[in-house]
Model the fold of this input.
Amino acid sequence: MYICDLDNFKPFNDYYGFRSGDRVIKLLADILEKAANRLGSEVFVGHIGGDDFFLGWKLSDNFDEAVAQVWKIVDKFGLDVQSFYSNKDREKGHILAKDRNGVTREFPLLSVSCAMLLVDTNQERLYDEEIVAQTCAELKKHAKQHKGGSVALASLI
Done:
C-alpha cells in the first residue's frame, strides 16, 4: 500500500487560492488513478482527506516494479505540478508565503512524498491497525524530510 501526501500544500493553497489547490489535488488523484491502472486488478485508490491519498493493491511477485511505480508517481507529479506556478515562482523554485505561525518564508515548489508499506495478504494473518497506521505515519514523516518528493519503504512481512 502507498500513502501519498503533498509537501508544502498549505502555503501553495494560501498563496494561489483554493481553486488552484483543488486542481493540484485533482492532478495527484489522476496520477494515482493512472498508476492504479498500470498496477492491474485488485487496486484501490482513496482520498483520505485534504492532501492525503491511499493506494492499496495486491502486490505481484515483482517488488521492484511496485517500487518503480511509486517513484513514477513522485516524478510525474513533480513535472506536472510546474504548470500551476507563475513563471517567476517556477524560476525561483519557491514561493514566499506565511507559515502556520504567520511568519513569511520561502516554501519549495510542491512535491509528493509517499510511504510504501508491504503487508502479507496471502496469509490469514491479521495486522494490528494501530501498528499499520503508526508505521505509515513514521514512513510518511521520514519521506517528507527529503526535499523534492521522496519514497520511504517498510515491510510488515
In short: The mean pLDDT is 86. The first helix runs from residue 9 to 16. Strands lie at 2-7, 43-49, 52-57, 94-98, 104-108, 111-118, 150-155. The chain is about 45% helix and 25% strand.
